[in-house]
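Notebook entry, structure prediction.
Reason for the run: the old model in the group folder had no record of what sequence produced it. Starting over properly, with the input documented here first.
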Amino acid sequence: DTPEQILDVVHMTIGSTTAQGQAGAMATSRAISDATDGSPGKESPQSSRAIAQDYKLYLIQECCDTSLDAALVAGCLNHPGSPERSLEAVLLLLLDVARGLEYLHARGVVHGDLKPD
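New structure, fully documented this time:
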């Protein structure tokens, strides 16, 4: 993929909340990693020039004004209408966190500040 093709996919997947859109975003991230030699913060001169000339890349993240601890206390992982936590929701959350860390670690990125609050 060329940098132009990669960024076209980024523009199409930003803001998508569907599983298909999220899968596309992950594929885009892998393609960007491949196009930049797979190293965070290191770009090949050819891809840097192509991107700088034709595109501005914006990383958009959801603003979360709470913490995991506050969400747990508020019952966000509880069964609807029940004070009991949903084991399925808890396990899915843990799996999401583990997958995110696995992705970062595979690329040499260490978060270094992971905590529930």
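Summary: The chain has five helices and no strands.
The old model has been moved to the deprecated folder.
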